[in-house]
Amino acid sequence: MKHTKIKDLLNSTKPIDDVTVKGWVRTFRNNQFLAINDGSVIHNIQAVVDFENTAPETLKRLTTGAAVLIKGSLTESQGAGQKFEIQAKHLEILGDSDAEKFPMQPKKHSLEFLRENAHLRVRTNVFGAIMRVRSVLSFAIHQYFQEKGFVYVNTPIITGSDAEGAGEMFKVTALAFDGTPRNEEGKVDYKADFFGKETNLTVSGQLEAETYAMALGQVYTFGPTFRAENSNTSRHLAEFWMVEPEVAFNDLDANMDLAEDFIQYVIKYTLDKCPDDLAFLNQRLADEEKTKPMAERSELGLLEKLNFVLENNFKRVSYTEAIEILRNSKPNKNKKFNYIIDEWGADLQSEHERFLVEKHFKCPVILFDYPAKIKAFYMRLNDDAPAERQTVRAMDILFPGIGEIVGGSQREERLDVLQQKIADLGIDEKELWWYLDTRRFGTAVHSGFGLGFERLVLFVTGMTNIRDVIPFPRTPQNAEF
Ligand code: 4AD
Ligand code: MG
After folding, report:
1. Which residue owns the Cα nearest ligand 1 atom 25?
2. Nearest to 349 by CA among 360, 334, 338
């Protein structure tokens, strides 16, 4: 039986005689007004039930969460709050929902409670809105790169290399858990494993993407990545989605231009396509802000914040300048930071990143030219820096409320410099023979970056915990569902 989406009915320009709707009951008031949602739009449609001609047993089954089919006519609504409603002529309960047991009651639940019910939380307004926005954002990402002629590359999920050299990887093995068989040295014999070598879930598709950029020119990946870092924060997931463009012949400035243009495009696209969901999330954030003390409230609302990013250039600041700003900042002098900045070379913590973005510059910031020591092996060494202050052509984009949203760099294209770096870090060059081939055959300047998709969704939805912007979050001690 053909049914119409609630979104289309609410957008109708005229009454319609015969319509069929299928969805889930949100509320049932006065034995008469049934609010139904089908996920197509944040709004419910109201069906007016002819209770005098409906069996009392059926009316009793119209409980929150029940799946229903309604046939009737779409008429202009008398009541306030909606333009159209359905005068129900036929009503069927497709699936009952025990009102006593259904966890999603028609009331405000805490986000913690909803996380424990991640399989049902998407039936709430907030999570419906977040997940529709997430979907539109991912489409916008493809649209942006496809319009610009980038090739979408699917890099492997199972890899034999550690792209970030940080060792925060999940092992992939088909061996027994007691670690047998062993080799002569008593170590696990990975030659006997499925792939004949040690493998892990990818932390980044960058290295493989670089090889493709050196043939196809402009490429991007968009897929799941995995990190076994034990960071139990509101911005870290063990499984997250990353977008990684990689462009031949781009230097770091062109890389920054690309990142800025890309982020502005996808936010603009989503503002255009999701006005209702974003209006709802804007209000949700405003309500949440009201519960905070004045001093902690953010100056801008969600929509204002999104428009601010579209209308303002990101501020580009070198690491060295940033360190000076931080060193002289009030929280540093008053020892309010957990990590006091006293020396050039210090790695920035999220408290420092957020100070720069939220308190000092009050706009998105691109930090560049980081100390070589705190960045990955593949980043291009700056030739003009003094030996004790070696820097690399790295860039991190910092966003208000988020901290780091993008990490990227110009890549080291010189074979000898890259080999030296790999040796200095004690990485086995043999593991990276294929990566080094890009530098052996037709090497060229190239750059790329990685954008953490969930951090972008956090920013666009105004949510504060990354566990609330991915359907089924994976974090330390948590892999339910
Ligand atoms: O800064 P990262 O580690 O950079 C890379 O992986 C590079 N290979 C990217 C590249 O140049 N192609 O990660 C990139 C971004 C971060 O800026 C952050 O937004 C996100 O990925 N990210 C995480 N998001 C959620 N949970 C985590 N545990 C994350 N780790 C990084
Ligand atoms: Mg990073």
Report:
1. 236
2. 338
Distances (CA, A) of 398 to 20, 60, 87, 127, 448: 48, 53, 52, 26, 16
Beta strands in 77-217 (DSSP E): 84-95, 151-152, 158-159, 171-172, 199-201
Q: Which CATH architecture has domain 123-158+203-468?
A: 2-Layer Sandwich (3.30)
Q: What does the pLDDT look like over 257-269, one tens digit per residue?
A: 999 999 999 999 9
Go through 377-401 and write b for each residue having 16 or more CB atoms within 10 A of its CB, e for each that does not.
Answer: bbbbbbeeeeeeeebbbbbbbbbbb
Question: pTM, whole model, 2 decimals?
Answer: 0.96
pLDDT in tens, 295-333: 888 889 999 999 999 999 999 999 999 999 999 999 999
Q: Report DSSP letters for 272-323, one per residue.
A: HH-HHHHHHHHHHHHHHHHTS-GGGS-SS-HHHHHHHHHHSPPEEEEHHHHH
Closest residue by Cα to atom 22, ligand 1, is 452
Q: How many angstroms does the Cα of residue 226 sit away from the middle of ligand 1? A: 10
Which ligand 1 atom sits nearest the alpha carbon of residue 203?
6
Domain locations along the chain: 6-102, 123-158+203-468, 169-199
CATH topology of domain 6-102: OB fold (Dihydrolipoamide Acetyltransferase, E2P) (2.40.50)
